[in-house]
Amino acid sequence: MRLIDLLSLIADNLGRRKGRVALTAIGVVIGTAAVVLLVSLAIGLQQNATSQLWGIDDLTRIDVSPGYSEGPVISGRGGVVAVDGGMQVKNLTPAAIDEIASLPGVEHVIPRDYLWGGGTMRYGRLENYPSIMGVGTNDLSVFGYQLREGSLQLERGTAVIGHWIAQNWYDPKARPGDGQPEQPDLVGKTVTVTLMKWAEDGTMIEKKVQVRVVGILAEQRSEADGWMFMRLDDVTAYNEWFQGKRINRNKDGYPMLVVKASDPDKVIEVAEQINNMGFMASTPQSVVEGINSFFTVLQITFGGVGAIALLVAAIGIANTMTMAILERTREIGLMKAIGATNRDVLTIFLGESAGIGFIGGLGGIAIGWVGGELLNILARTYLSSQPSYGMGGQLTASTPTWLLLFALVFATLVGLISGLYPSVRAATLVPVTALKYE
Predict the structure, then answer these.
(1) pLDDT score, position 390
(2) Contacts of 361 (CB under 8 A, 6+ apart)
(3) What distance in Å separates the CA atoms of residue 417 and residue 411, rounded to the nearest whole number?
(4) Is residue 77 within 8 Å of 250, Cβ to Cβ?
(5) Which residues are registered as beta bridge partners of 106?
(6) 382 in the Ramachandran plot: left (φ > 0), alpha (ψ -120 to 50) or beta?
(7) What is the pairing mode between strands 87-90 and 227-231?
(8) Which has the minimum average pLDDT: 31-45, 97-111, 151-165, 296-310?
C-alpha cells in the first residue's frame, strides 16, 4: 500500500467519526498544552535567572582567597604557610600568583587590596564616602566593565569610579529639604581624598591626597558600582601609612586575587585546580550550574505534571480504538478477504491512533503557546506596576521551537502507543470469524 493511499484511508476513517475523534483528541490537547505551558514557564524562569546573573557577574571570573587549614606548618612554591592561632594560612604571595598564572586556561591573575582605613572624598563643597580598592592592572577592561565616560586606563594618582559613587555626592552644609545637589562631571577633574586614622593618644591624624578621576563606569549592578578603583601601588602606599610600616607581600601576600579564565567552560576546572593548591576559589559559574540543575529538575517536574494528563488521554485513545475495532470487525474481515495483510491492518489502525495524537498535539501546542504569551502579558502588566520591576525582575514563559516539536512528536507517540494493543488485536482477527461478526 502506497503511503499516500494509507494517509488518505486514515483521514477518511477518522473523518467518519468526527465527534468521537474530537472528544478523544481533547484529552491530548489538554495534556500537550499543560506540558508546553508548564515547561515554557520553567524555561522562562531559568533564562530570567541566568540572564540577570550574566549581567551581574563575569562568568570567566574566579575569586581566590588565602587558604585555611589545620595541621603541621609547611611551605611551598604557592606561598609561605603561616600559623595563626593554630590555623594554617596559605597566603597569596607573588610566588602563588606565578603558580596560578601557569595553570592551563588562566588568562589573567590580578591581585586586589582594599583601603584598610577610612577615607572621605571632596570636590568643591561636595563630599562622598567611596570604598577604595587597589587593582594590580593598568587597564580595568580586563574585568569586562562597561565605561560611561572617560577611560579605563589607570596611572599613578588616578582613579576610575563606579556608577553609584558618581551619583551620590552630597553637600554637608545643605539645609533640610534642599534635596540632592547637582552631581558634578568629574572626568578629568581632581578630587581630594582625606585619609584618617587614630593615634595611640586618641587624636585623629589626617592625610590628604590628590586623585584625578579618569573614568566613570556605566551601571554594572555589581560590586563595581560602589568602588573607587586605583592602582594597587597607590592603595598599598596608603595602607602602609595606616599601619605605620611597610607591607611585605612575599610574607603577607594579598587578601584576594581575581583570576580570569580564557573560556567560561574552563572556569570550574581552573577553580578546582586552585582549590587543590590549598587556596579558596569561588566562581559565579558554579552558581549558574546550580541554578541550571535546579531548573532542569523543575522542567522535568512540570513536564511530568502535564504528562499525567497525557496518560489519561492515552487511556481514552485506547478505549476509542478498541470500540472502533468492535464496530468495524466485519470491515476488517472484508479487507483481509480482498487481500489486506495483517501488516496492512496493523498499519491502518496504528495510523489512526497516531493521527488522533497528532491532531491533539497540534491543538495542544497552539493553546500552550498562546497561553504562554498571555501569561507574559499579564506578568509584565502586573510587574510594571511594582517598584522591583526596574531592577530587572520578571516572570515570563519562554517557548522554544524545540519544545513545540517535542510536544507534537510526544503526543503523536502517545497516540501510537495507546493504539498498539487494539491495532494488534485488529490485525490478528481471523477473516472468516470477522465476516460472521454481528
Answers:
(1) 46
(2) 28, 32, 407, 408, 409, 410, 411, 412
(3) 10
(4) no
(5) 261
(6) alpha
(7) unpaired
(8) 296-310
Q: What is the pLDDT of residue 372?
A: 87
Residue type, 203: T
Enclosing H/E stretch for 118 = strand 118-123
Cα–Cα distance, 211 to 154 (Å, whole number): 11
170 DSSP assignment: B
What does residue 106 show for φ and ψ, rounded to 5 degrees?
-90, 125
Instruction: Tell me if 257 sits within 8 A of 110, measured CB to CB.
Output: yes
Measured at the CA of 78, the angle between CA 72 and CA 82, to 5 degrees, comes to 40
Greatest extent of the chain over all pairs of C-alpha atoms, in Å: 116
Q: Per residue in 347-385, is it b (16+ CB within 10 Å) or e — as a string?
A: bbbbbbbbbbbbbbbbbbbebbbebbeebbeebeeeeee
Amino acid occupying residue 124: G
Q: Are 31 and 306 in contact (CB under 8 A)?
A: yes
What is the bridge-based pairing of β-strands 158-161 and 204-217?
Answer: parallel
For the chain, the 3-state helix, strand and coil shares in percent, each to the nearest 5, are 55, 20, 25
Sign of CA dihedral 48, 53, 58, 62: negative
**In the Cβ-directed half-sphere of 367, how many Cα atoms lie within 13 Å?**
16
CB 99 within 8 A of CB 279: no
Residue 336 clears pLDDT 90, i.e. is over it: no
Range list of β-strands (E), 235-279: 256-261
Which residues, 6 or more positions from 376, have their beta carbon under 8 angstroms from its beta carbon? 44, 396, 397
SS3 72: coil
Q: How many residues does the chain have?
A: 438
Highest mean pLDDT among 94-103, 329-338, 347-356: 94-103
